[in-house]
Specification:
Elements lengths: L1 H6 L5 E3 L14 H10 L3 E3 L18 H5 L1 H15 L2 H4 L5 E3 L6 H11 L9 H8 E4 L6 H11 L4 E2 L9 H10 L4 H15 L3
């Protein structure tokens, strides 16, 4: 990561959620998180099928293990494990990016916060979600989901994304263009938030 950012000019890192059934809350991965925080670059957690320990019930019907439910459930779980595991107590400036308007995280924010309040964390789950996560619009052209993300996180935490080639770039731009929000918030979503997060 250090070479990629400092020598090659990359702006962050991407992982495909679990790695052989393991997640970033495992402390053996914390040197990666420490380096991302030190370099000031985000980590994007990209969806993949649920881990081998969890995937069997998803396999009954085509695509349930992927785009229908598996991808979102997998990344949602990864985010919750990071919060519950104290990752953001240890790395308070670490930034995580989730696609598909947060894989359900904005919708479940209140319930997650309530459920994790019994853990001995310095920072509440709600504050972790609002301070340490960005969500992208890619693959989720659904107005109620966008409004939920905006209400739960604020326009400052939403990044424009397309999910090409699975979604049309033109349609995704038109979707944001047509949303009845302020031009200032559209500017944040379309470019200003990314410019700030990725130091562009």
């Amino acid at each position: 990561m250090e070479r990629a950012v400092l020598e090659l000019g990359l702006k962050g890192a991407n992982i495909n959620s679990h790695t052989k059934g393991e997640y970033l809350d495992d402390k053996k991965f914390w040197p990666i998180l420490a380096k991302a925080e030190k370099l000031g670059v985000p980590i994007y957690i990209h969806p993949r099928m649920p881990s081998p320990d969890m995937v069997k019930p998803y396999l009954a019907y085509n695509q349930v293990d992927k785009v229908v439910a598996g991808y979102g459930a997998e990344v949602f779980l990864h985010a919750i494990r990071m919060i519950g595991g104290g990752v953001f107590d240890a790395f308070p400036r670490l930034q995580i990016v989730l696609g598909h308007l947060g894989e359900g995280l904005p919708f479940w924010l209140w319930r997650v916060d309530r459920g994790l309040r019994f853990l001995n964390l310095k920072k509440s789950a709600a504050n972790c979600i609002r301070d340490n996560f960005f969500v992208t619009t890619g693959g989720m052209q659904f107005l109620p989901a966008l409004l939920c993300a905006l209400l739960a996180l604020g326009a400052e935490r939403v990044l424009f994304s397309v999910d090409y080639p699975f979604e049309s770039s033109k349609d995704t731009v038109q979707f944001i263009d047509n949303v009845q929000i302020s031009d200032a918030d559209k500017d944040k979503i379309f470019h200003a938030n990314s410019e700030k997060l990725f130091n562009l």
